[in-house]
């Protein structure tokens, strides 16, 4: 009875949340997009890329060029597209207005409006990676813009150029940040251009590198946008604004650096941000867990429209770097591992959005499992296990001594079996892999030996060696009971907060 009342309350709450979120989503200017790099040895065909975008409900993408196949595949999808003039073509475009006009006509006008091109990036991090093209940057911006004006598209399509955040010096405290003065002769006309054309400052922000290069000055949690106790926040002594993450501090540094040059009304869009999921031995913080934490927190932060301390409530739309792992990228291992997906469209990790459920990195391969979280409290695991085998109606007999799933006899291993079974019994519905926060969705098949987990029966026997990470955790608590009979069933509410999928992207 108690459980039913709570279920009804939770349903009411869910409906309330859905309504609340749909109001937020009505605001068009807060969005998350994804960058699509193409340096893959087996780059998926544009139609496959677009199928993945649709399945994941990704509605904003940035291309590093204006690939015709991609632009055709993106036609009539509703997906908003940023195209780019690659750095290699910048000199040509910045030196000749007819070259610029041809580029716009072939790569933009020919596809618009079927392909909803909203923005043109002219070059990428030009001042820091291609300084000898800096002198033509402003002309390239102007020529591209003039070509849009001539085609009467300048109101629908904005023109800008992404800057590396390293262009901003002394970025903490943000109130003292300024652009590298060496570039003022380029920056002032560029900002002037952005202001008069109603465009925005594009900034690439990589807290991962800021953290790596800080020699321990920047705490990991501060880089990962984790909630910090207020006494750990960084305070800007000039403004008394409190910063709880690198991302906000960099965005505010950009606002202050612009203000220093007397530009106060140019909005910021973050054209790249992310975290690598794998790295060399000297990149120990490039992990799946950190990548997931960063990107999940970033998405929540952007969509929540928290804004920054300087401009609270002003959302900073952000493009995550990036859709695919790019195995052909030169450099350290981390360079190849910024993606949310592999070339087959299989998620590298399932984002933690609102604690449970998969939203962005959707289960397209249909192979997700529900496992006990690493380090979860063993009493809570035991209670959840007990609930799953009792009220949850999971057949836990394979966990009995002598049965296939008895070994390893730990609470975490047994809980994973029960959680995964429940999750699949419930059709992998959102919110059915939470168990009061002690369970999480994983793409690692927890099956081992003859203990075949639900969700993996299609590949019977081919994964006998794989062990879920959760299995490695030796629970410090009591050994698992042989029968989880519901001795202390907990009233347990699953609130699948579907709201995010409605808001996302
Ligand atoms: C290019 O510039 C020349 C001279 O500055 C001008 O006459 C011409 O109209 C421009 N062409 C375009 C396509 O804007
Ligand atoms: C294209 O994107 C813009 C900006 O988001 C939007 O206002 C417009 O309605 C879109 N057009 C189409 C045809 O979807
Ligand atoms: C500022 O930019 C100049 C020109 O690219 C560069 O040589 C210099 O190192 C930069 N200064 C800093 C502190 O990064
Ligand atoms: C949005 O941010 C505010 C302030 O940081 C926080 O209190 C609130 O819980 C957040 N809401 C969501 C839905 O994340
Ligand atoms: C996941 O993908 C399926 C199609 O494969 C789609 O129907 C579903 O809406 C997606 N769910 C989310 C939350 O994106
Ligand atoms: C995923 O699995 C469900 C049943 O578990 C099935 O109904 C659905 O068609 C599958 N989807 C794909 C894309 O394989
Ligand atoms: C799965 O493997 C087990 C043991 O190898 C075997 O007994 C069982 O018949 C297999 N199931 C299917 C569906 O192939
Ligand atoms: C399973 O593990 C053993 C040793 O642990 C190894 O020799 C064997 O090749 C593995 N099998 C597969 C299919 O990975």
UniProtKB/TrEMBL annotation:
Q: Where in the cell is it found?
A: Cell membrane
Is Signal included in the keywords of this UniProt record?
yes
Give the record's keywords alphabetically.
Cell membrane, Disulfide bond, Glycoprotein, Glycosidase, GPI-anchor, Hydrolase, Lipoprotein, Membrane, Plant defense, Signal, Transmembrane, Transmembrane helix
The entry's cellular-component GO terms read: plasma membrane; plasmodesma; side of membrane
Provide the X8 domain boundaries. Answer: 368-453
Q: Which SMART domains match?
A: X8
GO molecular function ontology, one term from the record: glucan endo-1,3-beta-D-glucosidase activity
Its protein name is: glucan endo-1,3-beta-D-glucosidase
The scientific name of the source species is Ilex paraguariensis
